[in-house]
Write a structure and sequence with these properties.
With 246 residues, the chain is an alpha/beta fold. It is 29% helix and 18% strand. Helix 1 crosses helix 2. The chain is globular.
Length: 246
């Protein structure tokens, strides 16, 4: 497994800009190589600021008609609910771009969780033309990190941390809203690139545990992220403040 690439910025605003620059660069590379960019979005406040920059300052840096948008997890709420990861991405980015409906592949949080998970697996098989047992290869999966060391909606102690067959699972987590959908580790780890965006002193202990702590994915689920491709951590100095000097 390649060593993670750490990019540490002075503050959150620098982090948002650098993340948008990285996404724009990766997008151009993917479109040049195979004609489209498959982009898996994350929820959370840090990605929201980056999405807004992508749709405004970096709008002309990306050939948006060749971008396909997916989600790595979703809360089981309607798409217009304030808790919805889709709603956040739509508000900050998607609604500002001239996208076709077939570019946006949202998880249906309003449906029964089990049905929504199965339907999203079908969506992935269709778009990526997957045979039985294959996993999609995203150009970029964006992730956040929770205070409790979760990522996507893989929370401490959840059996989904050890899932090897399914692509999308319904989970119940110790946060509101509890019912959620999540990508599984084999989907995340099959990506060409995975990018964590983490800011703030409140995340510093979690960052240290994931990058330098003992190996214990049941306690620290984000440790399960180990893509064959490139793993990028974009941090501000506050989030990186407990890491050993490098």
């Amino acid at each position: 497994m390649p060593e993670p690439k750490l990019i540490i910025l002075n503050d959150a605003q620098e982090l948002y800009v650098r993340a948008a620059e990285e996404v724009a660069h990766i997008t151009g590379e993917a479109i040049c190589t195979h004609g489209e960019f498959t982009f898996c979005l994350s929820g959370g406040s840090t990605p929201a600021a980056t999405y807004d920059l992508l749709a405004t300052r970096f709008r002309l840096s990306v050939d948006w008609k060749e971008v396909q948008f997916f989600w790595g997890d979703e809360r089981c709420v309607p798409p217009d609910n304030a808790e919805s990861n889709y709603a956040m991405a739509n508000r900050t980015m998607l609604s500002k771009l001239a996208l076709r409906s077939d570019q946006v592949h949202r998880m249906r949080g309003e449906d029964s969780p089990a049905d929504a998970a199965t339907a999203y697996e079908d969506e992935l098989r269709k778009h990526f033309k997957l045979d039985s047992g294959e996993f999609p290869r995203f150009d970029l999966i964006m992730l956040g990190l929770g205070d409790n060391r979760h990522t996507a909606s893989l929370f401490p102690g959840d059996p989904a941390i050890h899932e090897t067959q399914r692509m999308v699972v319904a989970v119940e987590v110790s946060a509101e809203p509890p019912k959620r959908l999540s990508f599984t580790p084999p989907v995340i780890n099959n990506a060409q690139r995975v990018m964590f965006l983490v800011s703030g002193q409140g995340k510093a202990a979690a960052v240290k545990d994931i990058l330098e702590g003992p190996r214990d994915p049941d306690k620290f689920p984000a440790q399960i992220v180990a893509p064959q491709g490139e793993l990028i951590w974009i941090l501000d100095k506050a989030a990186a403040s407990l890491l050993s000097p490098r």
